[in-house]
Structure formats: C-alpha cells, structure tokens
Amino acid sequence: MRGPRTRRTPAALLAVAALLTACTAAREEGKDPDAPAPGTLRVLASSELSDMAPVLEQVEKDTGVTLRPTYTGTLDAVKMLATGKTDGRYDAVWLSSNDYLRLRPEAAEKVVSETPVMSSPVAIGVKPTVVEGLGWKPAEVTWSQVERAVRDGRLTYGMTDPARSHSGFSTLVSVASALSGAQSALTDADVTKARPRLKEFFRGQKLTSGSSGWLASAYARRGDVDALLNYESVLEGFKNLTVIRPKDGVVTADYPLSSLAATDVATREDVRRVAEALRTDAVQRLITDHTRRRPVVASVPPAAGLDTGRRRELPFPGSRSVADGLLDAYENELRRPSRTVYVLDTSGSMEGERLSRLKTALTNLTGDFRDREEVTLMPFGSRVKSVRTHVVDPADPERGLAAIRRDTGELRAEGETAIYTSLRKAYDRLGADEDAFTSIVLMTDGENTAGAEAADFDAFHRGLSDDRRDIPVFTVLFGDSDRAELEHIAELTGGQLFDGQGSLDGAFEEIRGYQ
Amino acid sequence: MRRIAGIVLAVLLIGGVVAAVVAGRDSEETGTATKTVRMVIGSEKAEFFADPDVVKALAAKGYTVEAETSGSWAMEGLDLEGYDLAFPSSRAPAAELAARYEVRGTLPRPFYSPLVVVARRGAADVLARNRLVTLDGRSRGTLRMAAYLDAAERDRTWQQLEGAEKYGELTGTLSISSTDPESSNSGALYLAAASYVANGGKVVASDAEVERTAPLLRKLVSVQGAQQSSTDAVFRDFVSGAGNPLVLVYESQVAALLDERPDAGDLVVLYPDTTVNSDHTVVPLTGIGEELAGLLGADPRLRELAARHGFRPQGDLAEFAEATADRTAYLKQRLTGVRQAPVPTSTVLRELARRAHG
C-alpha cells in the first residue's frame, strides 16, 4: 500500500543512527586506555538509564565490578545487536525493554540471559491546573478521556520521537492499543482502523524530541504545553505534574540487564553477579527511591507516592511488521509534519572537502525525510544566496526529494559568513504554524564575519512574537565554527548544539529526532 | 566411605550409568580440594544455586558452582565448551543437548515442578464466578483447562465475564501470558498441555493432530504479542505489578517467593487441571558435571534445600510436603486432581511452537 521509500524509512533511520553511535563508540574507545578490562563491563545502555549513576556506584561497591555505560537509543541498540556491531565491543546490553529486540531474531539470538531489574509504565504527566480544569480524577482517567480533551482543544502535550526513543515507542503503542479498541496484541488491521482517531490525537502533540532531557527543558521553557507523555519515572522527576497512568492500560518497561553470547564465560559471570546485586533489597530500595521506578522484588515496596493501583498491561506487538508499520504510519501520516529551514554555510572556506561532506550529508538525509515534510534550503555566504522550499508529497515523494538533491548538487562555496543576517531571514520565512513542528537548522564552518552581529540577533529575537520565539535553532558544529557562538544561539532559541565534526551525517541525523 | 557408598546407592536408583561413572571417579578423589563446576541453567534455578545455604552444602562436598542462566531451548545456541553441565528445565531440550554432545545413558532428573498460573485475587474470583476456576481456599485453586481453552477459542474478553467490571485492570482478551515457546521451556510446556487437552486428552503425535491443534495454539500465543524469553522475567513483571493478570510460571518460583515472604498478599496460585511437569534434567558434559548431578539427586541436605526452594525432589513426596508446610494456603502438597499431560516428542513440540509463533 505504501511506497517502498516510506516503508524503508525507519530502517534507514536506524542504520544511519547506528553508524553514528558506532563511530562515537569507536572514538571513545580510542580515548580509553583499557577498552576491554577484567572487572569492568562495557554496557550498551538505553539513554533513559543515565539516571542510574548512584545505583551503579553502589553495585560497584557490592560486587567490585565497574559498569561503564555507553548510552544510545533503544532501537539503535537493537540495530547494533542485529548487525553484529556489539560483538567484542560490549560486554552487556541494558535496554528499557527487550520487547522490540525480540521482534528481530538476529538481535535476539545475541542475548543469553536477561534479568529485569525494575519497571516503569508509560504515563501522562499533566499540569495540576489543567487536571482541575478538565475535572479529572487522576486514578480514573482513561486514554479516551485524554483523546477527548485533545480533540476539544483543551490539552496539548509533548512526547519523544518513537523512531529513536523507547519511551516514545511505548507511548505510541499504548495510545494505538487503547484508541484502536484492540482487545489483544495489536495487528495491522487494528492500526488501520485506529488511524483517524490517532491522527486526531497527535494533532495535540506540540513538542517532539530525540531525548527525554531536551523534552523536559523545552517543556519548561515553552510554558504553554499542558502535558508530557513518557515513562512514569521520568514524569515523577517534574515538580509540578500530576502523573496519571490511564486506567485502560499501559505499556511497561522492565529494564532487563542482558548478557551476550559473544562474550566469554567470565564476563557473563560478572553480568550475573551485577544482576544479582541489582536485585538485593538495599539496591532495589535505592532504585525506587532515587529513580522512581518500581522494584521487581516483593520485599521492597514502590517508593512513596507511586500509586499501586493495578493497570491492564497492553501487549507489545508480537511481530516486526506491526511494530514497524505503526512507526511508519506515525512518521508519515499520523503526526504533524515538520517544517524546517536549513541555514547552510556555503562561504568560501567550505570549498573542497567540507562542501562535499555537506552535499553527501544532505543527500543522505533525503532518505529520511517523511511524507508531508516541508524542507527549505537556505545556503548563505555574505548573504542568503537562495531560498528553495520543497514538500515531500505523499502522492509522489520522489519528486520533492529529487529536487532537494538537485539543489544540494548546485551548492557553491563562495563569500563571507553572515550567520545572524541569514538566521533572521530564516525566521522571516517561518510564520506561526499550528500544524507543523517548525525548526531551524544552522550549519556553519566558521565564525560570523559579515552582516548583523550577535547582539543584533539577540535584540531581534527578543522582538519576535511569542509563537515565533518558540521556534528552536539546532546548531551544528563543523570545521572552524565557534562553539560558544553556536551554543549561545541554541540556548537563546531553545534549541540544542550538535557536534558535526566527526560525522556531519550523524549530527543531521540526530537532529531528525527533534523535527 | 560409608557416605560415598550411600551416595552411590542413591544415585544408582536414579541412573545406573551415571552412578557407575561417579563411583569410578569417587575412588580417585582424594578429598577436600574445592572443584569449580561451571554450568548453564534455566533461569528458574538461579536463586537456588545462589542461595548461601546451597553454596555451603555444595562447599561441604567440595564444590563451588558457577551458574549462568539461559532459556532452555536457547542452550542449543550456546557453545558449551568449558562447561561441566547443562541444566535445562525439561527433558526435551536436555535430550537434544545430550545427542549433540554425545552424552550417553539416562539423564539425571533430580527434581521437578509443575506449571501453575499466578493471578491476583480479583482475577481469580472472576474466573471462579464464571466457572473457569474452582477455588479451594482463598489463595489456591484449580484452573479448568478445557473451559479456559474454550474461552480462548471464542476470543472471550474479561469484560464478557461476570463480575469483571469491578476491576479496572481486567479488560481485554482473556489470556495466560507465557514465555516464548521457541526459546523457553515453560512456554513450550504450555503448548504441550494445551495441545493435549485440545487433542481430546491425547498427546499430539501425527501431522494431522498437529494440523488440528495448531490454530488454537496460534491463538494462545498471538494474543500475547511480544513474549518474554525467560520464566524469571514474566514472574518478575507479575511481582512488580506489571503485565497480564494471568501468568504461567513454575510452582517452584511461587514457592521460593513465599519462602521469602510468607504473606504474599492477594496472590492466588491456580493449578491447571491438566498440566505438565517441568522435569529439571541434567546433561553432564564432564566428569565433574556427573558428580554434581549425582549429588543433587542424592544428598539429603541438597534435596531438602531444593524442596525449600519449591522444587519437588524425585521419588519422595514427604520432603516437599515438609519443606512447604508453612505455605499450604497457596501450594498444593499433593497434586491430586491434577492430570499430568505427557509431552510430545521434541520434533512435534518444536513444530507446534513454530506454528504457534507464526
């Protein structure tokens, strides 16, 4: 039913992201004097586990085994396992959940044993004033009520990108299961049936993010988003959110520590000892108190404040076609499309290898653009050289993508570097738009040398209307660009800095999670 | 010397060939030096081998054990070079491993444990009210498999059951969560029990019988969506309050939980009226592995500890009854009224699992 391009999209996304992660990991290893070391476990871990530092310290004290985590998206980690990229590089894998992993036999067979360590369900955190306004009783709220509030324009929310983050994916599965009325594990037919309702539901999504961390700061900055969808443990970290586990069902992450077939017996014995230590009463108590996740041993109660009322567990899809189909529908059809202006430095200093790297990166990115996405290319030197906008039309996606590639091919390096003047043009180009995730990507290989100054831009930004001030600039460090300058722009606009020095492809790819 | 003779005698009762080898070894052993035994075991036995009392009892006999867990059917995918024994949770995967590593003779089966379904009281009460379960006491009952399979066949939901509306979490298709039958033993044994009932109380053997039972098994599995690959994992989810209201686990896991925490709140243990025992079967790969297998079956202290962990030692009902006397509110001491379904051959079982998984 869908074109081959769109069906391939999630896989392609993952492939590039995995490559990026692999490069990062390789670099880190280069820095690291003792790559594989006895008594140290190199753990490929879901980003969500970065809150476990004090727990890992305790486990190290208890077992003498040091855990050295490398954080990545859960779906990227599965891809790495499936393609053998973890062999010899990691001693254990610790994901939010092995549900998605199990759908890929090539990845599942790399795992020897798995030990669930704690659990956290998907939940919705809502501002207390909004809960009150809606007349909700937190213990009684259902997904249908959430849906109704969204439809009535009384609830907006943010969530992480399901293609990159397991919290986003679990949220998507929860919502799709609940709104499709599926009584058991989701099927393709359920997803098809639920499309109109899901589309309506996702119109309420005002924030998307590649990570829970950025989602939190964007939420705090915006102030006009009513709720966040994420794991209960993440939402519990906010001071002013009422955390609701919808009554009609949730998907729960159980954080299994997994040992790997490619490692030796001694390594797996260390993994086992760590898993055992993680399940002692003392550590389980530390986990629930510190991270607000739920214990998996009966002798330790969940941290105070975690509601122990039972919830139906919504089954995770049992086949890859359903999981990937859902992801694909979300990206290309259900979510609000993205609208992005790429402000690209093509000054004289980009001549040669830098320009060709930029061209390659942009060309590769055309494999990732979603249906309905609007992409504007704004190359600049001493001034903006051209403004070309293309839309990926679901009826003929290839036409828009080919046009982007053609424009990319025509980029020429010439002129000075007018960062701020060009950025202002980008804002001029973007109006307030209720129906798209709007953002600006700024890639530059040098400092600002022409046109408006930083202070001018700050003043310009202050003068923007509220909704345009919400448009973030994601900045990409490249060549000789000035980190402080780009950090300032990201901070001012609520964006984020990405490092494109090692892999420009990788940086562009990572930003996709925020668009 | 008397002690050794005692062991040999007890082992003889279990398996003559193994005993002969153990006896041969014993005569060469000189005494107290600790021998390290490396083994790969089903996840449900991890706590037993990690129990300090078990460690001590083994140390007293001169053994230190290093155990690694794996799905029973997944053990085939492991390189067992350097291991002394594999200890899957039933006969079929053990037999395949034995064939592959050319282990001859009867494989020792020191203890067994029936499959049970754990539930919370609300779910158990609703099932009882709808005649799917007979409760004997508040925390123990029998699941009527034929009635359950009939409900599954008709895609019955909790909402259609009388009394379920009181419990918000009881919605969706009525189903028991099991592990993945292609990688884990308890999931495969679930299919063995279900196929036996669906086949009119006869073990599935022919292609025609596979054909006939496959659609129901497919249904039992597909409603679950993604399945866990270890019995420990599904049980942990249950304990942490996540997951499906009905979960298939080993009786031993429940017994171990109750040993730690005698008051398990609103836990209810449901014994399917047709079930399958998990016969924990040792595949000795080295002489040391054989020694340990013998010891597990024969040493009174280890048998007692196994019983305390909820395993039923082979050949003597009294040991289990005694060890679990404080847990009878939840556990049946005798499995009267529980029919033991024979397990299909491993070829048939694999085919059933493959088809069920789709």
Task: Write a compact overview of the structure shown.
The complex is a heterodimer of chains A (515) and B (358). Helix content of chain A is 44%, strand content 18%.
How do the strands and helices of this protein lay out in sequence?
The complex is a heterodimer of chains A (515) and B (358).
Chain A: H1 4-31, E1 40-46, H2 53-63, E2 66-72, H3 74-82, E3 92-94, H4 99-102, H5 105-108, E4 111-116, E5 118-126, H6 128-134, H7 143-151, E6 157-160, H8 166-180, H9 188-202, E7 205-209, H10 212-222, E8 227-231, H11 232-236, E9 242-244, E10 252-253, E11 256-260, H12 265-278, H13 281-291, E12 294-295, H14 320-334, E13 338-345, H15 353-365, E14 374-380, E15 388-391, H16 397-409, H17 419-429, E16 437-444, H18 454-462, H19 466-469, E17 473-477, H20 483-493, E18 496-499, H21 504-511
Parallel strand pairs in A: 1-2, 1-3, 6-7, 6-8, 13-14, 13-16, 16-17, 17-18
Antiparallel strand pairs in A: 3-11, 4-11, 5-8, 5-9, 5-10, 5-12, 14-15
Helix pairs in contact in A: 1-3, 1-14, 1-21, 2-12, 2-13, 8-9, 8-14, 9-14, 15-21, 17-18
Chain B: H1 2-14, H2 16-28, E1 35-41, H3 46-50, H4 52-60, E2 63-69, E3 85-87, H5 91-100, E4 111-120, H6 121-129, E5 133-135, E6 140-143, H7 145-153, H8 185-198, H9 207-222, H10 231-239, E7 247-250, H11 251-260, E8 267-272, E9 274-275, E10 277-280, E11 283-284, H12 287-298, H13 300-308, E12 312-313, H14 317-323, E13 339-340, H15 346-357
Parallel strand pairs in B: 1-2, 1-3, 6-8, 9-13
Antiparallel strand pairs in B: 3-11, 4-7, 4-8, 4-10, 4-12, 5-6
Keywords (chain A): Signal
Domain VWFA (chain A): 339-490
Protein name (chain A): Ca-activated chloride channel family protein
